[in-house]
Every structure is written in C-alpha cells, then in structure tokens.
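One such shown below:

_____
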Amino acid sequence: MLLPPPAPAVEAAVATGFVPALDTEYRYHIEQERDEAGTIRRYATDRTVRFRRTPDGLVAQLTIDSVAGGLSDGPGAMFERAFATLKGRPIVYRLSDRGEVTGVVDRETVWTALIDAVAAQDGGDAAKKAMLQRLTAPLRAMPERQQVAMLGSMLTTLLAPDVVRRGVVAQHDIRQRATPPFDGGSEVTGTERIHAQGNALVEEQRLSGDVVASGGRASGRRTSTITRRVDATTGMILTQQTTVRIDSDNATSIATTRITQRPL
C-alpha cells in the first residue's frame, strides 16, 4: 500500500532539524542551582523568542523578560549583572535554515552595552575601576565570531535541531572533550541514546571523567547527566535538565540547570 507523502513541515524538519513556527512567541523559563560544599546559589531567567522570515532569511528576536538571583562571585557575578542589563531589550539574530546563529543585528551596539555594563561596576573605587578596565579591554577587542557565539548562546541553548536531524539513535558509547571550566586536557566518556516519545525526541547522555587542572594533574572527578526533550517538528527544546557533579579531595559541587518551554 502506498503511504501518503509526509507533510511539508515534517519533510523540512528531517532535512534541516529546524522549523519553528513563525510569528509565534516561544516562552522559556531557565533555572539554575549550584551547591558548593553546602552553599546554595540560585539563578532564574525568563526569555521570549519569536521567529520570522525576512528577504534576507530567517531571524529570531529574543527578549530577556526577567532575571533573579545569581550563581557566581567575582568577575562571574559581574557578567551576570551585565547580562541582566539587557532585560527588556530585544536582540535580533540572523539564522541559517539549520538553526545556526550566523550574526547579530546591531552586534557592535549590543556588545558595547554589555561590556560597558561590566566596566560600570567600579562603585567609585579607583583600584576597582582600573581592574575592570584591564578585564574588559580584551573583551572589547574580541573577534566578531566570538562575540556572535557569546551573544548567540542565549538563544542556541533553547534550540536542538541536531537531535531532530539525527533522529532515533540506539544507546552507544561516546567520548567527548570536557568543556570549560573542565578543559585542562581531560576527556569524558559515557553513553548516549535518542528515543521517540510521542511527538518529541528525547536525548539522554551520561558522562564521567577526571577533572584535569592546568598542570595536567587530576584534581577531581566529574559526572554529568543531560536529558533533552525536543519537539520533533520544530527543533525547539521542550524541557531539558543538566546535572554536573564535581567531587574533589575536600569538596563536592553540584550544578543543576532546568529549561522549560512554557505554554502561551
């Protein structure tokens, strides 16, 4: 018996992994919790994304709707506060048909506003002002490609077209290079699988490996689990939970991130 041809949206999703609904709001809630030796910090943010077609291609407009809490100390906290100053300011991204960020509209203006927000946190202290100038000088000179990647991460963390392109995958062993701040030469190994769940694809990864310090010595053990539920038609994340545990000689830290697409 001949089967009817797949719907255009399904065909496009298989080909590119990415067919978001146009002129429709996608609302996301992201919450993070970090437990470091019993000290718990929390951070939460809400973002709204809308996609549209222009004569030049696909674009996405992202707006940070709310920011609360913080995870970091020192420079990390400064960057958290700087990103919070972008709240309510739409950021427009140029995208490929595969969901890759290829550019940011008015990138120079957005980037300068972000770095200025870091530099402005001197509190009138001359020594701190000098320190912030040293910190931000290389950021102002950062190549365009890296600026786009950093600004684009606010959007790409909500997309998973790669999962849709791969489809259902049986459990298999994987090996990955550890990502910062676990990048002193370490690798993590584990398992991965992708299975269907209704209209979603669910990716599951379990990884572990040594945390290698810059000198090449193992300074602890890292284990992580990642579960992503992805809309198999659009390539948008429905839910995601990532847990990373670091065990060292004298402390344990656990970081958990949850992403949820909220109904309109």
